[in-house]
Design brief:
The protein has a four-stranded mixed β-sheet, sandwiched between helices. A three-stranded antiparallel β-sheet has the order 3-2-7. With about 150 residues, the protein is an alpha+beta fold. It has four helices and seven strands. Strand 5 and strand 6 form a beta hairpin. It has a single domain, classed as Nucleoside Triphosphate Pyrophosphohydrolase (Alpha-Beta Complex), CATH 3.90.79.
């Protein structure tokens, strides 16, 4: 992990949020997806700037004038080199000054780490998600992949 990533993770979440918000004048908008393969496993990325463990579903911020699905496809291609199929909107929600757009999708190709923002990636069974990963994202993945639970 680079020095900037280490420093970012050590900052209190309130400071990280405030710094992000300062770069965006009114609110931030991000896209993310629960991406699966033919085995029903979910793709997770260990991101340098993500607090706590770093593991989470792939995604990123939407650029000015960019459509959500296009932003999702761009982020995934930049970070892993794969394309997406069967992209479907899952939900949209707001979290204070942030809008989160979540999708489901199927991976086309074999992902690789292509960005300095990503430390590593992996395919996980819903029951084998890293325990230190954000609890909300763990629940989201299980709900998407195992709706009967």
């Amino acid at each position: 992990m680079n020095l900037l990533g280490k420093i970012w993770r050590l900052l209190p979440s309130s400071i990280r949020t405030r710094m992000t918000r300062l770069a965006h004048s009114t609110f931030t908008v991000s896209v993310a997806a629960v991406i699966t393969n033919e085995k029903g496993q979910v793709l997770l990325l260990e991101h340098v700037l993500r607090p706590a463990s770093g593991w989470g579903i792939p995604g990123g911020f939407i650029g000015f004038g960019e459509q959500p699905e296009a932003a999702l496809r761009r982020e995934i291609a930049e970070e892993t080199g794969v394309d997406l199929a069967d992209v479907a909107l899952y939900r949209v929600r707001t979290l204070k000054g942030h809008v989160e757009i979540l999708f489901t999708a199927r991976c086309v190709g074999e992902p690789a780490v292509l960005s300095r923002e990503i430390l590593r990636l992996g395919w996980f069974e819903p029951e084998d998600i890293p325990a230190e990963m954000n609890a909300g994202q763990q629940q989201l993945i299980r709900k998407v992949l195992r709706p009967e639970i």
